[in-house]
Amino acid sequence: MGRETPRPSAARDDYATQLRRAREPFLSLVEALGFSDAVATLLRSSRRFLEENPDEFGPILARGTRDEGALWYAAEAAEFARRDMGYDVRTIPGPDAAVIPARIFSIIAYRHPFFDGNKRTAFISASILGLSMGYRIRSVPYAELEEEVRELTAREAAEGEVSAWFLTNVFIVEEAGGS
């Protein structure tokens, strides 16, 4: 039996299936540990990714965590945002769900839980969380966004502004079937 040629309307279904598969490790973590613990794991993974890619993101001059409580708080705050908006992690997020990665960005960037690289860690963590939630990511090198990230954090931009910035510069929201 040969492989069927996908119908044009099936292309979106195929993409949705591929996206669900790519998100499966995060969804499994959420089911096993809960959303806040899955986010905490993602934060640590994001930091490790940053430390292991100095050519892309610059070197970390002082490794280590300065404030474990801030990491716990970030994960719990993401859970509160998810719960308050009724966001189901098994669905593709709409624009309103961008507040969850924005909250992670804001807490990491403003509370400085690490000795060095907090803005970069905030950006990577929020981007990877958005990807794990189901947003597609724009292919833009961090170097092109770095100055804007610095400006956002220098004025401690409000969560809504950070959310809008990620929707404009990083995340791609699906047109149909959103939140």
Describe this structure in words.
With 179 residues, this protein is mainly alpha-helical. The chain has a single domain (34-172), classed as Up-down Bundle (Four Helix Bundle (Hemerythrin (Met), subunit A)), CATH 1.20.120. The protein is built from 8 helices and 2 strands, in the order ααααααβααβ. The chain has a two-stranded antiparallel ribbon with strand order 1-2. Helix 2 (35-51) crosses helix 4 (68-85) and helix 2 (35-51) crosses helix 6 (118-133). The longest helix is centred in the first third of the chain and has 24 residues, at 10-33.
Describe the structure concisely for a colleague.
65% of the residues lie in helices and 2% in strands.
Main sheet, how many strands, which sense, barrel?
2 strands, antiparallel
What is the second-level CATH architecture? Answer: Up-down Bundle
Stated plainly, the CATH topology is called Four Helix Bundle (Hemerythrin (Met), subunit A)
Look at the structure and give the mean pLDDT. 87
CATH class bucket:
Mainly Alpha
**Order of strands side by side in the largest beta sheet?**
1-2
Contiguous helical run count: 8
Q: pLDDT under 50 segments (min length 5)?
A: 1-9
Could you spell the SSE succession in H and E letters? HHHHHHEHHE
- Tally the structural domains: 1
What are the main properties of this structure?
179 residues; mainly alpha; Four Helix Bundle (Hemerythrin (Met), subunit A); two-stranded antiparallel sheet; 2 strands; 65% helix; 2% strand; disordered N terminus
